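hiii so um. not sure if this is the right channel but i have a protein structure encoded as tokens and i wanna go backwards to a sequence. like what aa goes where. can anyone help
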């Protein structure tokens, strides 16, 4: 493959490149995108690489998306990405299906002992002794033409991925953890992972369980309405309704558009446009039961729960230290909180994590 960093913008140039990449046993994949002014990420560049070189595909050019879609969803070819979930979400409007099968070097690295959010540049430096140039991460990727610095930065994001993946796989094989990687990667193939459900949008609000149950219901209803409108209009959710205003509305519970106007939270034009829908969302919350809504004072578990979670966390940390991985890779605090609040260990964990944690957690559960 040509080492040229000129982006592919025409269908006739993409076809032979896609055909060549299709012959590789695995390819590296990355994306550049913009999200500041939209709900959905705007795909601005697709980086692809095999053992022979890098190809940069310009999705803003005159391209037939089918060639890339066929390549990325080819079932017999491994796609190597770093922090894959975000890129899969960005590519979904093109592919319509999650790409795969996937090898995520961030997940592989975590099982080798790195932190769960280890960056690509750090891994390349530590595993391959290559220091990557910085400075383009927040650039305007929709600007055309892309600069030489932008193109070089984008190419580096896939140039070393295949070698990095092989190095990490070797380490995991030596550690006897190849099956662990396969298990964790399988979760990336679940379409539900990338499905947007407005009913779950309230989970973005930190500390919601500290609110009174009825207030929680109002905030849930507003979050769902906001998510739906943001999706429909392809706008950032904060542009539809900022978090602080949503919290104020959940607390004050205006009953009419006139009541809403008295709060002086938005200008007259926004009030006219969104006021009726906001009041309708709050009214829907008033009709819902508070059964099942958890309320926790001060946002913390009670003393008994706090003690149990501390014991669980210590037990999990001991196991993680023994096998040389970060404790949060083995069990997050959210995982442990679910057990503290009544879920069974085998409901929270499965596979290799359950095999490592079932006995230690059982010993400290009483």
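sure thing!! here u go:
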């Amino acid at each position: 493959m040509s080492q040229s960093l000129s982006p592919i913008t025409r269908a006739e140039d993409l076809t032979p490149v896609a055909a060549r990449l299709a012959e590789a046993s695995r390819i590296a994949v990355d994306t550049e995108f913009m999200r500041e002014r939209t709900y959905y990420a705007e795909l601005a560049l697709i980086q692809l690489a095999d053992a022979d070189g890098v190809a940069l595909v310009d999705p803003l050019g005159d391209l037939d998306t089918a060639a890339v879609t066929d390549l990325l969803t080819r079932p017999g070819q491994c796609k190597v990405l770093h922090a894959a979930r975000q890129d899969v979400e960005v590519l979904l409007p093109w592919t319509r299906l999650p790409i795969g099968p996937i090898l995520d070097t961030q997940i592989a690295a975590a099982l080798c002992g790195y932190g769960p959010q280890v960056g690509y540049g750090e891994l390349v430096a530590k595993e391959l002794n290559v220091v990557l140039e910085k400075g383009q991460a927040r650039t305007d990727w929709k600007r055309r033409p892309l600069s030489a610095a932008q193109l070089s930065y984008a190419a580096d994001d896939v140039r070393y991925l295949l070698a990095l993946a092989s190095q990490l796989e070797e380490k995991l094989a030596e550690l006897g953890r190849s099956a662990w990687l396969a298990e964790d990667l399988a979760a990336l193939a679940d379409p539900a992972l990338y499905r947007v459900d407005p009913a779950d949008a309230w989970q973005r609000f930190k500390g919601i369980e500290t609110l009174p149950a009825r207030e929680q219901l109002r905030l849930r209803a507003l979050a769902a309405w906001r998510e739906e409108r943001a999706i429909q209009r392809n706008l950032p959710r904060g542009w539809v309704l900022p978090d602080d205003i949503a919290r104020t509305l959940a607390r004050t519970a205006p009953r009419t558009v006139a009541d809403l106007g008295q709060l002086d939270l938005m200008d007259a034009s926004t009030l006219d446009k969104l006021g009726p829908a906001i009041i309708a969302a709050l009214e829907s919350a008033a009709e819902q039961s508070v059964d099942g809504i958890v309320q926790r004072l001060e946002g913390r578990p009670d003393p008994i729960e706090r003690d149990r979670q501390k014991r669980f966390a210590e037990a999990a940390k001991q196991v993680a230290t023994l096998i040389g991985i970060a404790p949060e890779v083995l069990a997050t605090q959210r995982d442990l909180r679910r057990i503290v609040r009544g879920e069974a260990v085998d409901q929270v964990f499965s596979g290799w994590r359950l095999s490592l944690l079932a006995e230690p957690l059982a010993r400290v559960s009483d």
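oh and The domain at 8-194 is CATH 3.30.420.10 (Nucleotidyltransferase; domain 5).
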